[in-house]
Design a protein that fits this description.
By secondary structure, the chain is mainly alpha-helical. Helix content is 80%, strand content 0%. The longest helix is centred in the N-terminal third of the chain and has 35 residues. The two termini are 15 Å apart.
Length: 393
């Protein structure tokens, strides 16, 4: 049996992972915060909410298109300074948004954030995996991803509440300041990365696994963001007061933390079973909104359970892409990053079209169907989603 110490993450790695948690917190808060402020932004610039939802689409489209080429272009640059630079770029985008006099400049600020995002998650996921031995990769990815969950739990509700109290410009300004502080902490605490992963032998055979993992990633994110982009409208339709949307987002974020914690328990042992359970839970809870969504309590309950399921999904996708060993760790993470954001962008766009045409129920059906399709693919793609991870096979 392995020594218990072999299952522990060292102090230096833990410090680095802590820095990645903080940086990821800022990144995800920046990415998702328009969801909570959608009604305010729509009123401020006199555009329909279905059009304002394109703020999510523009951001995600840039990430999907740029993640792989930017990662290739910067492959010879030092990883740590590049990672810190992406965090500073998030703040620059948020400053532009806070000062934007027109909707076009608001979109420009989001575009700056999208460029930062295209590199950030490609770098941070590979960084987290490189800080620990292979047998602990899943756990390290889950720890780093907890920053994303905290972004949902604390970041988005806090910034949304600031927007409700003193206006959306102040909310984005506060987020910009938080990003600069995170850049300073990350520069101080994150150890330099010296590894240089390369493709495994037999990479051609494993590239099908990477493609399969990326496809499931895109479909799952498509389903989630098709509906989550309009979560403020879902809540308002269920008679949840606008002033309480920040608190509701806090509840959903807590559900995401729970889902991520549950994923961390199984990702290094039974990743396939855990991933299937998360997808099916998200599908069932989303579909339940059709029945329970007419009242605040039913809506909040179903949405929280849905986010518990989704909270586990990203880390399973990231681990599957990295464990395919078809490309270097940075490029595999870039493929994962591009796939998830392609799903986010398409989800927001198609969800917006469904919302404009047939309202919230149509978007709910779209989201539930996407989660079910993703689950079926996990069952079918055994090479991409093995019962046990490679190091335990």
């Amino acid at each position: 049996m392995p020594d218990a110490n072999d299952e522990r993450i060292g102090f230096g790695a833990a410090l680095g992972l802590g820095a990645l948690v903080l940086a990821t917190f800022v990144a995800v808060t920046t990415e998702v915060v328009p969801v909570g402020l959608l009604p305010q932004l729509s009123r401020a610039f006199t555009v329909p909410e279905s059009v304002t939802g394109l703020l999510v689409t523009v951001y995600a489209a840039l990430v999907a298109v740029l993640a792989l080429p930017l990662t290739r272009l910067t492959v010879r640059l030092p990883r740590k300074p590049l990672l810190v630079a992406t965090i500073v770029l998030y703040s620059a985008g948020n400053i532009v948004i806070a000062l934007a006099p027109t909707f076009a400049l608001l979109c420009a600020g989001r575009a700056i954030g999208g460029i930062a995002h295209a590199l950030f998650f490609s770098l941070s996921s590979a960084y987290a995996a490189a800080l620990v031995p292979q047998r602990l990769q899943g756990r390290a990815l889950a720890i780093a991803a907890s920053g994303a969950s905290l972004g949902f739990v604390l970041g988005v509700p806090l910034v949304t509440s600031i927007g409700a109290a003193v206006g959306w410009r102040a909310a984005f300004g506060a987020l910009a300041v938080g990003g600069l502080l995170a850049a300073v902490v990350t520069a101080s605490a994150l150890p330099s990365r010296t590894d240089s992963w390369t493709s495994s032998r037999g990479a051609r055979g494993r590239r099908s696994a990477l493609v399969g993992a990326a496809a499931v990633d895109a479909i799952a994110f498509f389903g989630h963001y098709a509906l989550y982009t309009f979560i403020a409208r879902v809540l308002l339709d269920a008679k949840v007061p606008e002033a309480a949307i920040g608190a509701a987002l806090f509840l959903f974020g807590a559900g995401g933390v729970l889902g991520l914690w549950l994923a961390g328990l199984v990702i290094d042992r039974r990743p396939r079973a855990g991933f299937l359970a998360a997808l099916l839970l998200a599908a069932a809870a989303t579909a339940a909104l059709l029945v329970l969504g007419a009242a605040p309590a039913g809506t909040l309950t179903a949405a929280t359970v849905w986010v518990v399921g989704f909270g586990a999904i990203p880390v399973f996708c990231t681990a599957a892409c990295l464990r395919a060993h078809a490309l270097s760790s940075d490029l595999s993470a870039a493929v994962n990053n591009a796939a998830s954001n392609a799903g986010i962008g398409l989800g927001a766009a198609v969800g917006g079209a469904a919302f404009a045409a047939a309202g919230v129920p149509a978007v709910i059906v779209l989201a539930a169907a996407a989660f079910l399709v993703a689950a079926l693919l996990v069952v079918a793609l055994r090479d991409a989603f093995p019962v046990r991870p490679p190091h335990r096979a």
